[in-house]
Structure formats: structure tokens, C-alpha cells
Design a protein that fits this description.
This protein is mostly helical. The chain has 6 helices and no strands. It has helices at residues 2-47, 50-76, 90-119, 126-151, 155-184, 188-216. Helix 2 (50-76) packs antiparallel against helix 3 (90-119). It is elongated.
């Protein structure tokens, strides 16, 4: 009996450490992407850049995705109660559903802003766009590096990892738009690159809302066939 306890102790310690490390990585990812979303949205609206606002929406998507993953880790550790016999994991789905709806709204606003800027092109402050693009690449790269190893074995963390990677792609689009406007004078480049990100948001939002709705309604998972079972 003593031998069993001694052997199991390192395993328990390792498991606790793994959960703690994952939670810490997700928390820092959420803080970085969430803070950058707020800053980028304010600056994007102030300078009138569709690409920056669209990237801010991507950062919201990333922050929301990481936040949902963090909630899953936190709530999964809570034991069931007499009222919640299945635990607290449905809170994750409620949060995901709300995030999906917000993404739909943001995609519509980006398209509306983009059309207005195409019809009436306006000059944007490319210096701020370049700075935001570079900072965005760093902010997206740091959490991605923190989550890279864990995402290979944890599907929940893998989803958060790819949400963070969206910030990298969005920041690259902001940089390209800023360079085109600054050095070619093609003002429409900002609106076009920003609008190209809107369909990606719609696809992501639809997937989130659809999956979370199925879970909230307790529908049979799509990969299971009850007849075959």
C-alpha cells in the first residue's frame, strides 16, 4: 500500500502542474488578446481603418475563444452538485453561443464600414496601422508560443491556439494594407483587406453558434450514429 502511494504521488503532482501551466498560459493569452482588442478597436474607429477594425474583431474572436477554453479548464475542475448533476460545463456553451452572436454583428458592421469607405475613400493614419500590425504580430506570437506544445495533445487548448493564430493573420493583413496605402496611395486597399476578413468571421461565428446550440439542446453528436451503435 505504501509503495502505491509513493508511486502515485508524482503522477498526481504532475497532473496538477499540467493543469496549472495550461490555465496560466490560457489566462495570459486572454489578457493579451483581450487588451489588444480593446485598444485596436478604439484606434481603428478613430482613424477610420476598416482593416484595423476587422483585425480587432478577429482579436475579439481570439480572446473569446481563449476565454471559453479557460472557462472549460476552470469549470471542468468543479464537482457536480445536487442541482447540477452534470457539473458546470454548460456555462462554456452559453459563453460560446453569445460570442458567436457578437461575431455575426461585428462582421456586419465591418462590411457596412467597408462599403462606405469604398464609395468614399478616406486617408488613414498608416503610421498607427503599421505600429498596430507589428504589435499584433508580437501579441499573437507570444501566446501562440505558450500554447504550442500543449495544443498537440489537448483539443480544447488546440482551439484556443488557432484562435490566437487568427490575430497573427489579421495583423499581417493590417500591415499589408498600411504598406499599400502608404507607398502606393491605394486608399481602397484598407477597405478591401478589411472586408476580406468579414466572411472568415461569419464562418467562425456560424460554427460556434451551431456547435454550442447543439450542445445546449443536448442533441446527439454529429459523429455518432445511434443505429450503428
Amino acid at each position: 500500500m505504501k509503495t502505491t502511494q509513493l508511486n502515485s504521488q508524482p503522477e498526481v503532482s504532475h497532473a496538477v502542474h499540467a493543469v496549472s501551466t495550461t490555465k496560466r498560459g490560457l489566462l495570459w493569452s486572454f489578457i493579451l488578446t483581450g487588451s489588444f482588442f480593446a485598444i485596436e478597436l478604439v484606434i481603428g474607429l478613430r482613424i477610420g481603418s476598416v482593416a484595423v477594425v476587422a483585425d480587432a474583431a478577429h482579436n475579439f474572436s481570439a480572446a473569446a475563444g481563449v476565454g471559453v477554453a479557460l472557462l472549460a479548464v476552470v469549470f471542468a475542475s468543479k464537482p457536480p452538485t445536487s442541482e447540477r448533476t452534470f457539473g458546470f460545463l454548460k456555462a462554456e456553451m452559453l459563453s460560446a453561443w453569445a460570442n458567436g452572436i457578437v461575431l455575426f454583428v461585428m462582421a456586419f458592421l465591418i462590411l457596412e464600414m467597408g462599403v462606405r469607405n469604398l464609395l468614399d475613400p478616406k486617408s488613414v493614419e498608416t503610421a498607427q496601422m503599421l505600429a498596430l500590425g507589428i504589435v499584433g504580430l508580437i501579441i499573437g506570437g507570444v501566446p501562440a508560443a505558450m500554447l504550442y506544445k500543449k495544443q498537440k495533445t489537448d483539443i480544447n487548448v488546440r482551439g484556443a491556439f488557432w484562435h490566437v493564430m487568427e490575430t497573427v493573420f489579421g495583423s499581417a493583413a493590417v500591415l499589408i494594407a498600411a504598406i499599400l496605402v502608404r507607398y502606393t496611395g491605394w486608399l481602397q486597399a484598407d477597405a478591401i483587406l478589411g472586408m476580406l476578413l468579414a466572411p472568415v468571421l461569419v464562418v467562425a461565428a456560424w460554427g460556434i453558434v451551431k456547435a454550442s446550440t447543439r450542445s445546449l439542446l443536448d442533441l446527439t453528436p454529429k459523429n455518432l450514429n445511434l443505429i450503428d451503435i
